[in-house]
Write a structure and sequence with these properties.
eight-stranded mixed beta sheet; alpha+beta; MMCE/EMCE_epimerase (chains A, B); homodimer; Glyas_Bleomycin-R_OHBP_Dase (chains A, B)
């Protein structure tokens, strides 16, 4: 079912400081503009590698779901892994049929790439928060 | 400097159980054989996606460096991110020149893909343990 590793989500207290690490220390050259996803409670910035992306996420607002993560990991750290799937509803139903817990209501939300996404509970995924994202129709 | 996102390293108390998650729940179809890297203190198993890989790692021996990680994260979790670089010695010297801490002696070791690797301390990388791996000469 899963396709490309679309991105690794990395939580940070400061996207500006994290961008400096990827640009100045690691020499990344393709770094997008920071933008807000208020419905998800995050600021987002993508750092491109030739085959995939790092998604830097910073809390947006008091209710951001990553405040808890940053409380445990004040310097930031790996937050989730995102795999592409061809059909998000089919993926959700498949996950549920296999007994995995889809977070929230299970209704897909629009993710940072403009396509619907769901998240699967880490308890079912070897301790890893897994995002499934419908492949953009015009991608690749 | 950094090139491809070669893999995401995911620590697990049991590669066999983690493989079942990727194969049976997520539907991954290209999963390698488990093998030992005694010098690194890990068992390794690669799960391929079309563009990258998940590297499952399980402790090998009493001195495995991931026992501590699993003590904090008993179910497993995202352990490191590995980027390819064209020349490991140049990458190491560049990291040091920029003030980043290379783990261990700084002498590259042979990693799971048979090419030299180094690890950069998370304190310099936004809380993320970063592996730099020399691109295999016959790759891509």
């Amino acid at each position: 079912m899963i396709g490309r590793l679309n991105h690794v989500g990395i939580a940070t207290p400061s996207i500006d400081k994290a961008v400096a690490v990827y640009r100045d220390l690691l020499g990344a050259t393709k770094i997008g503009e920071k933008f807000a996803l208020p419905a998800q409670g995050v600021w987002v910035c993508f750092v491109d590698t030739p085959n995939s992306q790092i998604e830097l996420i910073e809390p947006y607002g008091e209710d951001s779901p990553i405040h808890g993560f940053l409380k445990k990991n004040p310097a930031g750290g790996q937050h989730h892994v995102c795999f592409e799937v061809p059909d998000i509803i089919a993926a959700r139903d498949d996950m549920r049929a296999k007994g995995a817990t889809v977070l929230g209501t299970g209704e897909p939300r629009i993710g940072a790439h403009g396509t619907p996404v769901i998240f699967i509970h880490p308890k079912d995924m070897g301790g890893v928060l897994v995002e499934l994202m419908e492949t953009p129709k015009d991608a690749h």
